[in-house]
Request: fold
Amino acid sequence: GRLVETRRTNMFIIDEIVILITQSLFFGFGWYYFRKKLFKDYEVKNLFVQILFSLIFTLSCTMFELVIFEIVNVLDTNSRWITWKISLGLMLFNLIYLLPYYQFYLLLERFGSKKAAVLALIPETIFLYFFWKLGDPFPVLSGEHGLFSIEAAISRIGVIGVTVMAFLSGFGAVNCPYTYLNIFLRKIRDSEIEQLERQYLQTIEKISMKKKRALLCAAKQPTSLFNRLVSVMNRSHDGEESIF
Reply:
């Protein structure tokens, strides 16, 4: 029994070392991307913002990595499950508590860093109240999980995320064709419009000339009504052949 537990402990340590190495690589890449690519022309001097971006990027990549490890069956099941819960808990803490609080802190920083740190707790408390009250109309609570459990937090974030995505999808579905549809339309030049107008006037002139010829032919041959109609039709047919 001790040998099996020792092996499990060693495997868990090795798995966590592998995950820590990959997380270090993710954090370094996120830091480099933020400094060199994302804000290449705009220097962000706030070190905490850079750390937050790199941390959230690392947690997101770690959760994606764990999904791949689950599919290909890499690392131990317990190691993946523990790392998943830790990563998910840290991600929820950043989304619900840390990021809103720091945004309020930056808005109130003009009053001083110490005062801002205390004053930011007021809007943060209001935000948390409405965030948790948001789940009351929806069946996101159950007797198995507590009010401040991971399941309750994910449920509320899911409601907000689905609502925001639906709003953005509807706006994009209407705005994108309205904005970019003219790219696929062929522009009509003024010369084409003038050419069509000349063709229209020529057609009207031909019609009026044919009517005049028909009237003249009918006046020159005072025969029966049937003969007149036949003569007019023949004349009109001959006139069309001469024109075309």
Q: What stands out?
A: The helical segments are 2-38, 47-72, 77-107, 113-119, 121-133, 150-180, 190-220, 225-243. Confidence is low (pLDDT under 50) at residues 239-244.
